[in-house]
Specification:
The complex is a heterodimer of chains A (105) and B (171). Chain A is built from no helices and nine strands. Chain A is mainly β and 105 residues long. Chain A has one domain: Immunoglobulins (Immunoglobulin-like, Sandwich). In chain A, strand 1 and strand 2 form a beta hairpin. Chain B folds into two domains: 41 residues, no CATH class; 114 residues, Immunoglobulin-like (Sandwich), CATH 2.60.40. Classes of the chains: A mainly beta (105), B alpha+beta (171).
Chain lengths: 105, 171
């Protein structure tokens, strides 16, 4: 079970740049090890992160295994109107993990 | 498994390099990942063969000059990280974020990792300001580079050494 957690500031003013923190619970397994044994082609990590605000893309990340377990990203969003931040994490097994948070004024 | 055990390292690398282009697409398909062929060729979704940091930089930026960011970009990295598995990086900058002139990509590169490119973070003008943070893994003490790529192609680099007491890339 993976989980996405997103934190946004509680009070926001129009035109302000807010920092959104997004975290996903994910092992970010690298290629070489699983259960202490060296295995080939047995990896599973988040390789792509997409974030949008009211449907407009604001942030995207391509990540390798060299990003920590339970990866966390913080990114800026300029807010002119209340809306929804949506963050989608894609892992190399084709699973996606989605999280949403409301930004209120 | 057998292939890895019997073939010496150099041979395996060459095989990996040869298989790189084809394998990237095939690998993704077999894993049931999104069938975006074009992305698979350039993306980080498939582990790449080991490479030196000079090669990474050449591959990403060609012959473009890396300007020293200095005051333009503030990067917070620990001087000494106890655990290479979690090294916090925080990037703040006053570089412009306007519709025609903005920070397009931020690359985090650890020089001595076996695959130096940790992550590529992309922004759009909607972001309003460059302010990013994440955690990276480091195999050992190394220089870390943070390179900001503007929409016009100019590059700003911040380089700093981070000492690691325990490596974090699984040996």
């Amino acid at each position: 079970m993976s989980q996405v957690r997103i934190r946004v500031p509680e009070k926001v003013k129009a035109g302000e740049v807010v920092t959104v923190r997004a975290l996903v619970t994910h092992p970010m397994e690298s290629m070489l090890h699983r259960d202490g044994k060296i295995v080939e082609k047995n990896y599973n990590f988040i390789h792509k992160v997409e974030a949008s605000y009211n449907g407009k893309p604001v942030f995207e990340a391509e990540t390798s295994q060299a990003v920590s377990q339970n990866p966390f990203f913080s990114f800026p969003v300029k807010v002119n109107e209340p809306g929804k931040v949506k963050v989608i994490f894609h892992d190399t097994e084709g699973k996606t993990y989605t999280g949403e948070a409301d930004i209120k004024f | 498994m057998k292939l890895t055990q019997n073939v010496p390292m150099a041979g395996r690398r060459q095989v990996l390099k040869l298989l790189g282009a084809v394998g990237a697409v095939a690998g993704l398909a077999s894993l049931g990942a999104l069938p975006r062929a074009a992305e698979a060729a350039t993306g980080l979704g498939v582990p790449k063969p080991d490479e030196k940091v000079e090669e990474t930089i050449k591959r990403l930026f060609g012959n473009r000059t890396l300007q020293t960011a200095g005051d333009k970009m503030k990067v917070e990295l620990p001087l000494i990280a106890e655990n290479g598995a979690v090294v916090p990086v925080r990037i703040e900058s006053n570089l412009p974020m306007e519709v025609n002139n903005y920070v397009k990509n931020v690359y985090i590169i650890t020089d001595k990792n076996r695959r130096p490119l940790n992550a590529r973070l992309s922004l759009t003008p909607e972001a309003g300001k460059l302010s990013l943070a994440t955690n990276i893994r480091m195999g050992g003490t190394s220089d870390v580079r943070v390179i900001a790529e503007m929409s016009d192609g100019s590059l700003w680099q911040h380089k700093q050494e981070v000492k690691i007491t325990v490596g974090g890339c699984g040996g």
